[in-house]
Specification:
325 residues; globular; five-stranded parallel β-sheet; single chain; seven-stranded parallel β-sheet; binds (2R)-2,3-dihydroxypropanoic acid; alpha/beta
């Protein structure tokens, strides 16, 4: 008998086809998110779960899923999953690193350019029919080229952002839990700084570290006060690494110049203060959202899930200790 798996959100047909070769698939192609109870009911007799970052896979859900053997997240970040609870039950957890690095780095760069050159402001000005002619001092922005870029979180996506910065002749500095290897630093053309040094020196700060209890509100009022007054903050990683209330205040009072945000605390709800501000560019968590990348993420998750259920080591196993018991 094939193992039963639940797919919580709509995915591409090629991923479903791959899953169907190996599993009995219960796919939610309507894309209406399951409530926790509805998901728990589905998982009562399922061995596999392919889920999205919008699904909370917590200890309660795990306890209600007696047959579960693998949770395959369609995301590189997995803060939606209680990994220790899965590990304690011997459930393998997988993610989708690698396939989304470049698309996510592109979006971070897009937010940086859009905030520096005020693209959303000027677009709305034109659409409203307010443009009456060219003026020398009109819509002045700041230069991205030759500016100092500070990347906090020098993992694969951070490195992909640093590579892009070369083309803009930027000086790249970074902060990470620990410095990356000299080879990676050389490839990224990036120099390590303490957090305070980075905040004081960077014209643009891009956040690319994973969200965890340790990185919750890593950037709050105190850190924004340490940034250059004209600096721009980009959050393209996870809501919660920035204290959004403090950010609204810093943008309102000119503590920093502008922000580009793809993620928010408590998304899809966001602090209403952002909507009233012109110096913020907003995007709805689309960092990895190109067709090729989202397709690759779904297929990577499907491959991980099938490998785990076949008894093979999934290529992107998060909790390797589960297999070493
Ligand atoms: C991820 O993979 O963690 C991204 O946020 C999804 O877009």
């Amino acid at each position: 008998m094939k193992p039963k798996i639940i797919v919580t959100r709509e995915v591409f047909d090629d991923a479903i086809d791959h899953l169907k070769q190996h599993c009995e698939v219960d796919a939610n192609q309507t894309d209406i998110a399951y409530t926790p109870d509805a998901l728990a009911a589905k998982l009562v007799n399922a061995q596999g779960l392919m889920c999205a970052l919008t699904d909370r896979v917590d200890a309660t859900l795990i306890a209600r899923s007696p047959q579960l053997r693998v949770v395959a997240n369609i995301a590189v970040g997995y803060n939606n999953i209680d990994v220790p609870a899965c590990t304690a039950r011997g459930i393998q957890v997988t993610n989708t690193p690698g396939v989304l690095d470049d698309s996510t780095a592109d979006l971070a760069f897009a937010l940086m350019l859009a905030t520096a050159r005020r693209i959303t402001e000027v677009e709305s000005y034109i659409r409203k029919g307010e443009w009456t002619g060219w003026r020398l001092k009109q819509w002045l922005g700041v230069d991205v080229h030759h500016a100092t870029l500070g990347i906090i979180g020098m993992g694969r996506i951070g490195q992909a952002i640093a590579r892009r910065a070369r083309g803009f002749d930027m000086k790249v500095i970074y902060h990470n839990r620990k410095p990356v290897s000299p080879e990676i630093e050389a490839r990224a053309n990036a120099a390590y700084r303490s957090m305070d040094e980075l905040l004081a020196q960077a014209d643009f700060v891009i956040l690319q570290m994973p969200y965890s209890p340790e990185t919750h509100h890593l950037i709050g009022a105190a850190q924004m006060a340490k940034m250059k007054p004209g600096a721009i903050l980009i959050n393209s990683t996870r809501g919660g690494v920035v204290d959004d209330k403090a950010l609204v205040e810093a943008l309102k009072t000119g503590v920093i110049r502008a922000a580009g945000l793809d993620v928010f605390e408590g998304e899809p709800k966001l602090d209403a203060g952002f909507l009233a501000l012109k110096n913020v560019v907003l995007a709805p968590h689309i960092g990895s959202s190109t067709e090729a990348t989202r397709r690759a993420m779904a297929m990577t998750a499907a491959t991980n899930l099938v490998a785990a259920l076949n008894g093979d080591k999934p290529p992107n196993l998060v909790n390797a200790e589960v297999r070493n018991r």
